Amino acid sequence: MNASADQRRKVVPVPLSELPWPLLHAVAELADAPLTQIAKGLRDAILPYLGSSALIIFTEDCTGRPQKKVGDEDIISKVSIVELGALRAALPDEAPWFGEVELAGRHRPVLALKHASSNALLVLTDPQPNDPQHADEVDLLMYLWRIAARRIREKVADAPPSYLLESRAASAERIRVTAELTDLHSTTLEILLAALRSDDTSAHSAVIDLTAKALVELRTLSDRTNDLVKEPVATAFERLRQDLRPLTRFGGLEVEFIEPPLNGRDLPGEVAHAARAIVRGLLLVMMEQPDVSRVRTQWDCDGVNLLINVRDNGRGTLAADAPSILRLNRRVQALNGNLQIDVMPGWGADIFVTLPLDPPARLARDITAWNLAPRELEVLQHLVAGERNRTIASTLAISENTVKFHVRNLFRKLDVASRTEAIALAHSTGLR
């Protein structure tokens, strides 16, 4: 008998009654939690072992809602992207870090962790216990954080079209508000600086320095917001290459990458995420065909659209109406894009995807004004597609009564009296 078999023979099973069932249930709920509830699921799982006044997740995978947080309202309502970005930049690696930083307007003790592959940040404020000597609690937190960070990436990659629409609207609104605040306060500070500089007394030197610092910080905030919701096309393509590396390494598939121009226009975060998910989905569909050994993917940018081309060397058996292709096409349409398939029997499939870089201005404004919950927006999109309540319930894995509840809320928020009116209004904003 070899050593590994001997080790297996000596393993003593733990009685089921002694398993930590509350923790196991919490882990299961965390794994199944929607994006909006991942922070709560993570805190619920760790709270019996490691207390905190608030739990904050900062991830650039979710460009529309980069912060996911739960806990003390005084903290989660004030914490800023700039504070979280500075903390993340100061962390050297994935190791847990205990210390005191400025967060939500004042210095607080925190426990912080980074996730290497996604660069996401987890912060627990006022952790209890608050020192690294409690290794078991911290190890448990690291284990649960890895689950949460990976699930965030997976859920964003597989997000429904409604999430992309809501995220894009939120990103556009945050850019608009930040730009307005930056312009307003920059003008005020510049006028103040000019007035102070006109007086050459030493008494004003400190005020000038403080004002100049505030002006720099304000500009930095504006730049940081724009960086968060935009991604250089070359960087986005390199992330695609990294995402597809397991396919090339273990899937027996040769993938040829045609680089986009380095000076291409920055991509909105939702477009970059959707583009990577669409290409991944297309490669998986192509791999299901017989005799596909090589795929070529190419990105380009014409200043208005992201242009994607994916071609395989199969037999040309890919069907345009296959369920997997239709699902990908819905993601494309959610961003007002277009997907075309050119199937050549005996020569493979050639797929072209066009994703506009700018959303229709009216679409972002109207959807934000409706104040729809993510599920309501998803139901509305199914209504626009002409689906009945029963079909929507089956697709979303909810009851038909829940669909009716969402439809009633849609009628109230859109101020319409029928499905026909709701669909017509949605069409008028560009929603498809």
UniProtKB/TrEMBL annotation:
**MF GO annotations:** DNA binding
Q: Name one Pfam family in it.
A: GerE
Q: CDD domains, per this entry?
A: LuxR_C_like
Keyword Repressor appears in the UniProt entry: no
Instruction: Tell me which residues make up the HTH luxR-type domain.
Output: 366-430
* Protein origin, superkingdom: Bacteria
Lyase is among the record's keywords: no
Q: Which GO terms describe its biological process?
A: regulation of DNA-templated transcription
What InterPro entries does the annotation carry?
Answer: HATPase_C_sf, Sig_transdc_resp-reg_C-effctor, Tscrpt_reg_LuxR_C, WH-like_DNA-bd_sf
Keywords for this entry?
A: DNA-binding, Transcription, Transcription regulation
Q: Which PANTHER family match?
A: DNA-BINDING TRANSCRIPTIONAL ACTIVATOR DEVR_DOSR, HTH LUXR-TYPE DOMAIN-CONTAINING PROTEIN
UniProt protein name: Response regulator transcription factor family protein
